[in-house]
Amino acid sequence: MGWLKDKLFKKPVNKTGYADILNGFTPIYSQFGSNIYASDVVQQAINCIVSEIKKLRPQHIREIIESGSDVTSVNSDIQKVLRQPNEIMTAADFLEKITWQLFFNYNSFIIPTYYTWEDDKGNFQRRYTGLYPVQPAQVDFIQDAKNDLYVKFRFVNNYETTLKYSDVIHIRYRYSVSDYMGGNEAGQPDNAALLKTLSINDTLLNGVAKAMKASYAINGVVKYKTLMDDGKTEAALKELEKKLQNNESGFLPLDISGEFTPIQNKIQLVDADTLKFIDEKILRHFGVPLPILTGDYTKQQYEAFYQKTIEPLVIAYSQAFTKGLFTQREQSFGNKIQFYPKDLIFMSTDQTLQMVNLLGASGALYENEKRVAFGLRPLPELEGKRLQSLNYVDASIANKYQVGNDGNTGGENSDNE
Question: How far apart are CA 361 and CA 123, in angstroms?
Fold first, then answer.
């Protein structure tokens, strides 16, 4: 742990017992999985996801409860640590780290550091100073006498620390059978099916490699037209070997007694069936289509990839950070962490502009909503502001509007005032 140890150290919890778990298992989880990452295809597939996640921009925002949909950005201490999580990581490094950990272990733990003080009203305030992704070797969930939930981390160097679970940001992937962890009942990735597929893929690759070696070992057959005893055969083979070694032009000179028959070697290294196999078996496991892997994708293919694979992670990250960084009371005032996909938006700039012009001119969008549509953060000075174009008028009074009569002078409308 080294430089991180002092930042993460917390006093141990007294009078604790293992947390209750619905399926009856003891909630102790070892964070080691099978090594599926020896496969280059697996690494490339996950790297496609990680590369997109790195483009996210986390933002502390506050929803305006009265308006129902408008938001404003908050330049808080939380926002500062989101921009610079810790001493050795940029925001992109931080997102890359936690995403790789998520796919390694199906669980990613982040420990926020902070200090507290008491304000003038006697309320304890918290100021965050950093965000530290950690990779424990073992995780225990513990409850104290008041039924508060704690998490105990044990690292590979046998260092241990116990923290209140509400003070930890925990992102889970494929959260299913375990009450506390992503993955299987042991809190680990269930890679049994994938390992079978990778084994088959490895067998295919080994077969191609052996075929390549065999193709270079035998290039042709030399047939001699005369009967030879063992001594003459051995001498002929040595002569042939010498001619092969001295060959520079690519042609093999033979005398009249020998006839050379070439063997045609046609090795197809990666055929359509192999590519289909990789696409449908390995890449499908991670939700990464082959065009995304190769970079030769259409807008529709990227849109499907975003909605199927990236967007669920964006939602999970936003909710996990909101839960870990804000109390229930703070959340009730609209505070949340939102990960904005500035560089992930699959709608083209022209299409976004058309949408904003259409809805914005009718007053259907707040000004900050227009900024968010382009992946820009909301501005405090635009909070609650909504503009409408005067080029639109109610169809029932269009004729009056054209001649400068808005219907409010004279006639029936005058009498009704």
Answer: 45
Which amino acid, one-letter code, is at 415? D
Can you give the three-state secondary structure of 39-54, one letter per residue? Answer: CHHHHHHHHHHHHHHC
Question: ∠334-310-87 over CA atoms, to 5°?
Answer: 70
Report the Cα 95 to chain-centroid distance in Å: 9
Spatial CA neighbour of 13 closest among 167, 216, 157 = 167
pLDDT confidence of 213, banded at 50, 70, 90? low
403 alpha-carbon distance from chain centroid: 58
φ/ψ of residue 57, rounded to 5: -125, 105
Q: With bands split at pLDDT 50, 70 and 90, how would you rate the model's confidence at 396?
A: low
Contacts of 342 (CB under 8 A, 6+ apart): 55, 56, 57, 375, 376
Torsion of CA 400, 401, 404, 408, to 10 degrees: 70
Cβ 362 vs Cβ 389: under 8 Å: yes
Secondary structure letter of residue 278 according to DSSP = I
Q: What is the mean pLDDT of residues 178-186?
A: 89
